[in-house]
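Ligand-bound model needed. 2-acetamido-2-deoxy-beta-D-glucopyranose.
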Amino acid sequence: MGIVQEMIFLFLFAAFVVNLVSAQRSTYIVHMDKSFMPKVFASHQHWYSSILDSLKSTSPNFHQNPSMLLYSYENVLHGFSASLSKSELEAVKKSLGFVSAYSDKVATLDTTHSTEFLSLNPVTGIWPASEYGKDVIVGVIDTGVWPESLSYRDDGMTEIPSRWKGACDGGYDFNSSLCNKKLIGAKYFNKGVLAANPNNTKKMYSARDTEGHGTHTSSTVGGNYVEGASFFGYALGTARGVAPRARLAMYKVIFEEGRYASDVLAGMDQAIADGVDVISISMGFDLVPLYEDPIAIASFGAMEKGVTVSSSAGNAGTDLGELHNGIPWVLTVAAGSMDRWFAGSLTLGNGLTITGWSVFPARAVVRESPLIYNKTISACNSTKLLSEVSSGTVICDSSESFNNQLYYVSRSTLDAAIFISSDYTYDDSLFPYPGVVISPGEGAEVINYAVNGVNPTASMEFQRTLLGTKPAPIVAEYTSRGPSPSYPEILKPDIMAPGTLVLAAWRPNDAVSIIGPNIGLSNDFNLASGTSMACPHAAGIAALLKGAHPEWTPAAIRSAMVTTANPLDNTGTPIRDAGFSYATATPVSMGAGQVNPNSALDPGLIYDATPQDYVSILCSMNYTQKQIQTITRSSYNCSKTSSDLNYPSFIALYPNKTKNALAKKFKRIVTNVGDGAATYKVQVTAPKGSGVTVYPDTLVFGQKYDKQSYSLKIKYKANQNKTVTFGSVIWVEVNGKHIVRSPIVVAPIIPVW
Ligand SMILES: *[C@@H]1O[C@H](CO)[C@@H](O)[C@H](O)[C@H]1NC(C)=O
Ligand SMILES: *[C@@H]1O[C@H](CO)[C@@H](O)[C@H](O)[C@H]1NC(C)=O
Ligand SMILES: *[C@@H]1O[C@H](CO)[C@@H](O)[C@H](O)[C@H]1NC(C)=O
Ligand SMILES: *[C@@H]1O[C@H](CO)[C@@H](O)[C@H](O)[C@H]1NC(C)=O
Ligand SMILES: *[C@@H]1O[C@H](CO)[C@@H](O)[C@H](O)[C@H]1NC(C)=O
Ligand SMILES: *[C@@H]1O[C@H](CO)[C@@H](O)[C@H](O)[C@H]1NC(C)=O
Ligand SMILES: *[C@@H]1O[C@H](CO)[C@@H](O)[C@H](O)[C@H]1NC(C)=O
Ligand SMILES: *[C@@H]1O[C@H](CO)[C@@H](O)[C@H](O)[C@H]1NC(C)=O
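Prediction:
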């Protein structure tokens, strides 16, 4: 089991150690029913401490350990975490009010042109309507923050809202005066990681970002404007977050030594207590049922308090059902590319100029360098062979992967290299050697010139950034695919947002690029890829929606984003999927499509849901009473049981082998959030091989906030090839502008946790 921090290619990270628990004790998260607390206790913490104190008498080997109680949780769950032996745990289980306990788990980790790509602009739409997220508070649960980054400067920010209850905690290399009107809170939660690493001698802790990930995600959500930001000349421009006037509060729960559920829960618990409006969490726990998933547990409490939680789908790639955070009450975000390309231009001695992919991080001089095409070395898979040529620009064919070729070439004595590859999406920003990647067609021209030209030469220039490239977005290969193993009856992910090669702030004392085998380069900004980078885009949009519509519930905010998402790319054709040879992407890869913030501002209709609706979902699952209470905290009412949530999308699952005709019926209630009366007519596109009927086909709303219901029935069959098919149901406003679209998906059943 693991939290996954959703950034890919973090190979500069120190490896972290799992399960370094003392032989005697390990950390458990214990859920308690508050209603059983005896009146003699002044607080829950006293009650929990007394339970742990009472273990002394039951456990003969008990050694007094003042740090045994790690955290007492108040908001997102009722209970505590503690370091316990097996027999102590058994004793705790006998306490009055005990609900459930499970051992601490390890999490897996998952620029700013993206705001333009999302059509955010100062003239119309959600930026002006929300005043850029002014006074919305976003809590980021991550690796900490680099507070000196220009992205956290507070020029242009007004006074901190008086409802804010958070604080800026000082610590090692982190002065509490570093917070300001932009970065309004910074706290760290390391008791779980310390308990799991008893031999750790490091005593220096604070909310300072020792990785870079948290600085990147938080500045993506709500970083201030920074002019002249770039990645060594690439992506040059003004950096800013999606909600540039929102407030940021960092809750550091991830440390180099580990990532533990007990710390994640403590961070989310504090964020809710402090009064955040939105939580962005770019990590997830794999292979856990909802009642043991700290993010599911904590975000249920957040949802009840009206806090939207945006989470990352994970970077597990193309296998179906590997997604995490597929939690019914959160927003689950997939990742895609932008309409931006980084390039070098290659000019041959005969005048031909080709623009090829490059992120070589400097203005290297490659001028009229002898161009070499030699079949003996063109696989570029041996530094020794390459160095026999000594100088010039070598052409590398596609017989070896471009990443391997980069490795061998960057250890050679050549001037530069030209790589031939049929790939055209890239998500890695490392390019340690002067060179460009060109297509096989272009490669044939270059080889022809190299073989037949007289004294052939090549020149290159770097640091080119192309905008408006097509097609975009493309679903990233790495993004995790649904259906959700924790609750497959709801379509996950919900939406897609930019996640590939996002430019945002980073810690300046880290090597974010390299030249040759061993020259590390640092920078104040970094290009990073992963669903970790997509999640904060969606969190920023949720903050803008909250600013524009303070009364909207988390379900309403999610509904607005889902029903207005765009399934088409910038060529007007269906978005493609880099993980499936650029075939049309399905909703299990990207949800309803690319998030479209200006349309989400005014969605026309919303599919709302109450906390009780989610309880009805839990009641429909094969969970015990205690497992449900672990999520809901207090007593709950299972008088209504439903596996069908009022969700803005539809999914029907088929078992492995059945020839029988299958059918599934859904009921939905939509609320008119447009101004005044409206009539909508339905347009249905059934998934291939299925039949869909919707009743009624017209919805008439007398005024704003009127509700209407409809039913949708799908008849479908199992597919031997385990393919995913999809269509949509679209409510189109008559004589109006609103288009409310929901995907309909037919997918194979996947193993459930
Ligand atoms: C911690 O240190 C003690 C004593 O050096 C050693 O016996 C024990 O194995 C160590 N524990 C871990 C988890 O490394
Ligand atoms: C924190 O910063 C303030 C203001 O810059 C300074 O007066 C104080 O000495 C600093 N505290 C520490 C512990 O460095
Ligand atoms: C390098 O590539 C050539 C051509 O594809 C191949 O024959 C050779 O075995 C490769 N060498 C290594 C060390 O991989
Ligand atoms: C090609 O490269 C090999 C290995 O370096 C070298 O022995 C050979 O002479 C080269 N061929 C030509 C035509 O340059
Ligand atoms: C439901 O849970 C019970 C007890 O945990 C288990 O025995 C049973 O197989 C489960 N049923 C299904 C359909 O998962
Ligand atoms: C449970 O909910 C139903 C319907 O909402 C209500 O009639 C009933 O009184 C509730 N029961 C409890 C114990 O709250
Ligand atoms: C369906 O088949 C896959 C292997 O193709 C297997 O892993 C899975 O358990 C099967 N599911 C069911 C519900 O039988
Ligand atoms: C399944 O795949 C096979 C081979 O790719 C293809 O011939 C067949 O038409 C597919 N069947 C369905 C139902 O898609």
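The longest strand covers residues 457-467.
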